[in-house]
Amino acid sequence: MSELKELKTAEYQDLLNQGGVTVIDFWAPWCGYCVRMMPVFEEIAGELEGKANFVKVNADEEPSLARELQVEVLPTFVIFKDGEVVDRKIGFLPKGDLQGAIESKF
């Protein structure tokens, strides 16, 4: 799978307007758990390609988007369905827990 798209604040609304399930990974390069979760997130994105949209947001570079979505801890995975937040997972998670939370929104 190719590297995940880095979402910018200006693209956020367009992404949600696509509908379906979207997962945003809020991370930062200095965050150890974020760095450890990135390959897991990318693996899930590869397995669920075509079923959901997966993007990442560097919270340091896009602080207004992090504030808008009330991201206070990194990593935070915000799950949307049809443009609405339906779930969020915070911190280092086993792959199955994160993937199960995403798949339950299909």
Description:
The protein is an alpha/beta fold. The protein has one domain: 3-Layer(aba) Sandwich (Glutaredoxin), CATH 3.40.30. The protein has four helices and five strands; from the N terminus they run βαβαβαββα. Strands 1-3-2-4-5 form a five-stranded mixed sheet, covered by helices on one side. The chain is globular, with a radius of gyration of 12 Å. It starts with a strand and ends with a helix. The active site is at 31 (nucleophile), 34 (nucleophile).
Keywords, separated by commas or semicolons:
106 residues; alpha/beta; Glutaredoxin; five-stranded mixed β-sheet; 27% strand
- E-strand count: 5
- State the major sheet: 5 strands, mixed
> How many distinct helices?
4
Give the CA-CA distance, first to last residue.
21 Å
Query: Taking Cα atoms only, what radius of gyration do you get, to the nearest Å?
Result: 12 Å
Order of helices and strands: EHEHEHEEH
Global structural class: alpha/beta
Which overall shape is indicated by the principal axes computed on the Cα atoms?
globular
- By CATH, the topology is Glutaredoxin
Mean pLDDT: 95
Helix percent reads 25-40%
Oligomer: single chain
How many domains, in number, for the residues?
1
